[in-house]
Amino acid sequence: MGRRRRRKPKWVPERAIVGELDRRGRAVVAAGEDGRPREAHVDGALPGESIEYLRCDREGPVDAARTLEVLEPAPDRVAARCPHYGVCGGCSLMHMDPDAQVAFKQATLLADFASHGVEPERVLPALRGPTWRYRRRARLGAKLVPGKGKVVVGFREKDRRFIADLSTCEILAGPAQGPLADDPGRLISALSELIGSLSIAARTPQIEVSAGDRELALVLRVLDPPSAEDLDRLRAFAAQYELRIFLQPKGLDTVAPLETGRELLHYGLPDFEVELGFRPTDFVQINAPLNRAMIARVVELLELEADHRVLDLFCGLGNFSLALARRAAQVVGVEGDAALVERAQANAAANAMTNLSFEQRDLYKEPGAFEWPGGPFDRVLLDPPRSGAAGIVEHFEAIAAPRVVYVACSPETLARDAATLCSRHGYRLAAAGVMDMFPHTAHVESIALFER
Question: Which residues are the signal sequence here (predicted)?
Answer without folding.
Answer: none
